[in-house]
Input
Amino acid sequence: QEAVVFQQVDKIFHNETVALSNFNLSVNQGELVCFLGPSGCGKSTALRMVAGLGEPTNGRVHVFGYSPKQLLEETNDIAFVFQDANLLPWKNVLDNVLLPLRLRGGNKKEQKKEAIRVLKMVGLGDYLKAYPRQLSGGMKMRVSIARALAAKPKLLLMDEPFAALDEITRQALQLELLDIWQKEKMTILFVTHNVYEAVLLSNRIAVMSARPGRLSSLMDIDISFP
Ligand code: ADP
Ligand code: ADP
Output
C-alpha cells in the first residue's frame, strides 16, 4: 500500500548542484502529502523524479512498486499539473481534456462522458465549448486539473498549481482540490512554498530544508473532515 518511496536519494546535476541529498520518504496510497520548503530546496526535482523526468544520481525511487520510467511507459497511473495550465489554445475546453484520452485510444463515447464528468466536477460544465483565451487564470487551472483527472490517475503530481492565482481564486481551488481528493481517493503529491497551503491541504507535510534537498521533518496534520 506504499504509493511512493524515496530511498536514500541523491540528485547532483552536471554543474555539481546538489538538489537532493540522502532524501528518504515513504507515501502511502490515498495520502495527500505536501513538499514544503523555500525556493531551491529540491521540491520540483523530487516531484519530477516521481514522474520519470530525471533519474536519481544515487538511491532509488519506487512508485507502486515500479520504477518511475516503467510506470510512465507501461501505465496511465500518473498525471502532472504544473503552475502553468499548458492548454492548447486552438482547442476548446472539452477537446483539451479529451486530448490525453484520445491519444490513448478506447471508446470515444465513454471518454467524452468522463471528460464532461470531470469538467462538471471542477465547475466548468457550462464552458465545454469555450476556448482557453476566453477563460480566467483560475478557470484555466480548473481545465488543467480536469485534464489530469480524466485519465483516472492513481497518483496526481502537482507543482505549485495555484501559485499564479489571486488569493480568492486560490482558496476556492484549494477547497475544490480537497473535495476531489476525497471523492476520487487518489494519492497526491503537492509542491508548495506556502505554509498555509500545506497545512490546509495535506494530511502530511514533508518539510524540506534550505540546505538543498534534505528532509528536515515530517509533520502529521490531523484534520478530520465531516
Ligand atoms: P524547488 O522546486 O524547491 O524550488 P528545484 O528542485 O527546482 O527546487 O531545484 C533544486 C536545486 O537544483 C536548485 O539549486 C536549482 O537551481 C537546481 N536545479 C534544478 N534543475 C536543475 C538543472 N536541470 N540543472 C542544474 N541545476 C538544477
Ligand atoms: P481540432 O482537432 O480540434 O480541429 P487541430 O489540432 O486539428 O484541432 O487544429 C486546429 C487548428 O489549429 C488548425 O487550423 C491547425 O492548423 C492549428 N494548429 C495545429 N497545431 C498548431 C500549433 N502547434 N500551433 C498553432 N496552431 C496549430
Observations:
- The beta strands are 2-12, 18-28, 32-36, 58-63, 78-81, 155-159, 187-192, 204-208, 215-220.
- DSSP finds seven helices and nine strands in the chain.
- Residues 167-184 form the longest helix (18 residues).
